[in-house]
Automatic annotation (TrEMBL):
<keyword id="KW-1133">Transmembrane helix</keyword>
<dbReference type="InterPro" id="IPR011701">
    <property type="entry name" value="MFS"/>
</dbReference>
<keyword id="KW-0812">Transmembrane</keyword>
<keyword id="KW-0472">Membrane</keyword>
<feature type="transmembrane region" description="Helical">
    <location>
        <begin position="321"/>
        <end position="343"/>
    </location>
</feature>
<feature type="transmembrane region" description="Helical">
    <location>
        <begin position="297"/>
        <end position="315"/>
    </location>
</feature>
<feature type="transmembrane region" description="Helical">
    <location>
        <begin position="54"/>
        <end position="72"/>
    </location>
</feature>
<keyword id="KW-1003">Cell membrane</keyword>
<feature type="transmembrane region" description="Helical">
    <location>
        <begin position="355"/>
        <end position="378"/>
    </location>
</feature>
<dbReference type="GO" id="GO:0022857">
    <property type="term" value="F:transmembrane transporter activity"/>
</dbReference>
<keyword id="KW-0813">Transport</keyword>
<feature type="transmembrane region" description="Helical">
    <location>
        <begin position="142"/>
        <end position="162"/>
    </location>
</feature>
<protein>
    <submittedName>
        <fullName>YkuC</fullName>
    </submittedName>
</protein>
<feature type="transmembrane region" description="Helical">
    <location>
        <begin position="16"/>
        <end position="39"/>
    </location>
</feature>
<dbReference type="GO" id="GO:0005886">
    <property type="term" value="C:plasma membrane"/>
</dbReference>
<feature type="transmembrane region" description="Helical">
    <location>
        <begin position="228"/>
        <end position="254"/>
    </location>
</feature>
<dbReference type="Pfam" id="PF07690">
    <property type="entry name" value="MFS_1"/>
</dbReference>
């Protein structure tokens, strides 16, 4: 495997990574600045700020049926670039709505922009799979994890700084420019048709309802028909659990146990500490990925983070909780890098979009179920210690299951589970 960052010498991958960075930066800066704007503009109506967050999650449930199918049937490079350019235009439209103070249209634009963004990631990830070799996937997953950690660590600060220095107008203009730059970077890549259109050329007329349903179901059959792939996709479901639990559990333990009077301040510092741990853990896991098999990272990350997370609920002082939270954050990237680096090696390039189209909804489902169960049972039936113990236990149990099955499955499965579907066959099915 190439050393960390050496993969950046590949021009197409470098441009795709920079495009993903620019696109994510635009999204983070614009949405964070817009949140501050709503809190200032409607200070007595926090409902609007909550509604803006809802406009970011609801679209995933409205378009997940289509995103993977389009990424496999249409030109992936055009999809990714057009998503960015459409979002740039929508950012300008949002700016106009803000100037005219048309609140219903503001939230309508937010919903549409979020829906458009859902098509970007499956297409971009499928392109990354095509421009790299299987030896580079773990490195690429590590770089993606580091980029996500940076935005987690500095994203809110960037959005706040843009809003304070440039105002909502300047922040949304910066938002639009970031999306436009991302689109230009994607279009600058010289990617062969075999990567952009692995299943041959299709027209929009061919994408009728029957074809979309058939392709969506084919993605599920493909996942379930390959044992190793099904196991790895299930691992992303576990990430939904941690996302749901960690979105509320740290604040709960601070407010109800460790620091009831100053929990807001501690929550800010904990976020910075957690982001730092993720960033350093991403670097460490990327280095280890060059020396370990992917299941070593996955199993080690799940078991260690699960044990530490379960223990975190029982601490009685802020310093110990900070220390355990940092170590949990440091160990989590190993799971993500192991899964993210292994997945492209075993998925048929012609079906990567459909596989990615299932991962997002699965993570959102487990995240939503986790939050629903917490809302239902905490604190009436489950205390804060039990909450940490249950979520951490899910990680440990999954890690132990993987310990029993993944090493054997790794030896049995070939690098690619199935031959690509011929373009002619795909076209005829349409």
């Amino acid at each position: 495997m190439k050393p960390l960052f050496e993969v950046l010498r590949i021009p197409n991958y470098r441009n795709l990574l920079l495009a993903a960075f620019s696109s994510q930066m635009g999204s983070v800066i614009g949405l964070t600045a817009f949140m501050f704007y709503l809190l200032d503009r409607f200070s007595g109506q926090p409902f609007y700020a909550t509604l803006s967050e809802l406009m970011q999650s609801l679209p995933a449930l409205s378009v997940f049926f289509f995103v993977g199918v389009l990424a496999d049937r249409m030109d992936r490079q055009k999809i990714a670039a057009n998503c960015d350019w459409i979002n740039a235009v929508l950012s300008l439209a949002l700016l106009a709505m803000v100037q005219w103070d048309w609140v219903p249209l503001i939230f309508a634009v937010l919903f549409i922009r979020s829906a458009v963004s859902r098509f970007f990631f499956p297409a971009e990830q499928a392109l990354v799979q095509g421009v790299l070799t299987d030896k580079d996937y773990s490195v690429a997953a590590g770089l993606n994890q580091m980029m996500g950690s940076l935005f987690l660590l500095f994203g809110t600060a960037l959005g706040a700084a843009a809003y304070w220095k440039l105002g909502i107008t300047g922040a949304l203009l910066l938002d639009a420019v970031s999306f436009a730059v991302s689109g230009l970077l994607i279009r600058s890549c010289r990617i062969g048709e075999a990567v952009r259109l692995p299943n041959g050329r299709h027209t929009w007329r061919q994408l009728n309802f029957r074809v979309i349903v058939s392709d969506f179901a084919d993605g599920l059959r493909y996942i379930l028909g390959h044992k190793l792939l099904a196991m790895l996709v299930a691992g992303f479901a576990v990430f939904g659990i941690i996302n749901g639990g960690m979105s509320v559990m740290p604040v709960f333990i601070l407010k109800y146990k460790l620091a009831p009077q100053t929990y807001e301040e501690h929550a800010v510092w904990l976020g910075i500490l957690f982001g730092t741990g993720l960033l350093l853990g991403s670097v460490a896991a990327s280095v280890l990925a060059a020396k370990c098999r992917p299941y070593h990272l996955i199993i080690g990350g799940l078991v260690s983070s699960g044990l530490l997370l379960g223990l975190s609920g029982w601490v009685t002082s802020i310093p110990y909780f900070y220390g355990l939270s940092f170590i949990v954050a440091f160990t989590l990237p190993a799971v993500n890098i192991g899964l993210g680096g292994w997945l492209p090696r075993i998925v048929d390039p012609g079906r990567m979009g459909r596989v990615q189209g299932w991962i997002g909804p699965l993570m959102m489902l487990t995240q939503s179920v986790t939050l629903g169960l917490i809302a239902l049972f905490f604190p009436s039936r489950i205390g804060i210690e039990g909450l940490f113990l249950i979520v951490g236990g899910c990680f440990v149990v999954t890690g132990l299951y993987y310990l029993a099955v993944l090493p054997r499955q790794y030896r049995e499965d070939a690098a690619v589970p199935a031959a690509p579907v011929p373009a002619a066959e795909e076209a005829s099915s349409a």
